[in-house]
Amino acid sequence: MDTKYIFVTGGVVSSLGKGIISSSLARLLLSRGYRVTIQKFDPYINIDPGTLNPYEHGECYVTVDGHEADLDLGHYERFTNTETTRANNVTTGRIYQAVIDKERHGDYLGKTVQIVPHITDEIKRNVKILGNTGNFDFVITEIGGTVGDIESTPFLEAVRQLRWELGKDALCVHLTYVPYLRAAKELKTKPTQHSVKLLQQVGIQPDVLVLRTEKDIPVGMRRKVAQFCNVAPEAVIQSIDVPTIYRVPLKMHEQHLDEIVLEKMGVKPVGEPDLNAWNRFLDKIESAEEVLTIGLVGKYVELQDAYKSINESLFQAATYCDRKLNLVYVHSEKLTDETVGDYLKDMDGVVIAPGFGQRGTDGKFVALKWCRENDVPTFGICLGMQCMVIEYARNVLGLKDANSTEIDTQTKNNVIDLMEEQKSISNMGGTMRLGAYDCTLREGSKVAKAYGATQVRERHRHRFEFNDDFRERFEKGGMQCVGENPKTHLVEVVEVPEKRWYIGTQYHPEYQSTVLHPNPLFVDFVKAAIEYGKDRKK
Ligand code: GLN
Hints:
Helices cover 37% and strands 21% of the residues. It is built from 18 helices and 23 strands. The strands form 5 sheets. The chain has a 9-stranded mixed beta sheet with strand order 13-12-14-15-23-22-21-18-19, sandwiched between helices. The model has no long low-confidence stretch (mean pLDDT 95). It binds glutamine. Glutamine binds next to strand 19.
């Protein structure tokens, strides 16, 4: 079968969940035995989201091959259990950079370089990269932004051309919003009609409409939308708010989204998708009654998307352990020795979040000291691990001015320091230590037991590292360096074995936790938190 291309666009407002709809459709097609990948095209000019502040676009996700990517790629992986790469996330910046490089190289042979055809050709080439590998039956392409935005116009033009070229092998799913006006007690479809008109104006007729709504949209109203928008009535599907995003694939399947897509693309749907494992996970979500309370200490707590993958990893792990996750965001800037007890006393476990720069680190040190002294299960991730090392150096090893050179460039006790290969780097974009690296875990350590293995591979995103000059002092003083890179011997994991669960990882295990394969380290942390919770309540 030729690779089929499904385009997902959005209208009316942003944040409708195109990523979740794309992921849900991918889940259904995968569960029918097809090979599927999802890619995201983002209309902004940044080359990648690596240089973006989390307040702008939430978390920066990292792929195995070290691409700093949009957080939607995290959803793709969590839903599909399939790794993404650099090819799965392309921005306007990347497209222009490639075209301008070609122009400088003389590839356009004296032609005037224009948005159409040069930019659109480059977009089309990128859309097809994964399809051309022969590894996928379906390539789902999510177009970021909202129809009508100036920025997304070249992408929509490329979609229009591709639909023309690919015929039945291309399909467009358009996601819109049907607001409920409380005062009038009415659902309103006019914004949807307008947004479809905008799409039609640029030459794209959607094949399927997915209507996001908070209330059930009556069949008659969906028919009306179908009629106004030239879409088959059965292909107007509603996506109603559900308690968990992981239920969306089932909601889509109930309305035959997968069958409709297959039929429209000339593939006969046979049988039903195998959603057994998926359903077992959903059953666990629903049957969990006991609550597990985890505190997440970070500085971006006003914005839930800033720690998206950590939230999801904790949720998956808690669900597998039959617990309802109560995740409490604790603003690190509010923590002082006087307030910390009030903030953390009800936590079964505490995660110290990743991050950059000095702001908020004092609160992380306060939290870590309190957790260590009270023997609360504690998980430090990336900057969280680095803070764990610093706090231990200061308060246990007696190195009062211990610090990271990221926080204090002058510190003598630079227990965390800039990696050697980072010292000559001046460009900020894409220059950290990024992507998956092997890690060897010490036999018998808590972390090796958690993984049930001594060789693991996890993803990184950092410039600073544990300073090896201090390794012996830490080991003698009770903090063990139990994970290291087999080639460079960089310290990747520390733990204090005498504590219940006090582990820090330089890598980000949250990037490798999916619904069907929750990350073992998160599961182990959650188990320790459950045990601690039981002890505490005794
Ligand atoms: N700022 C730290 C570093 O660059 C940690 C980064 C992170 O937490 N992702 O090493």
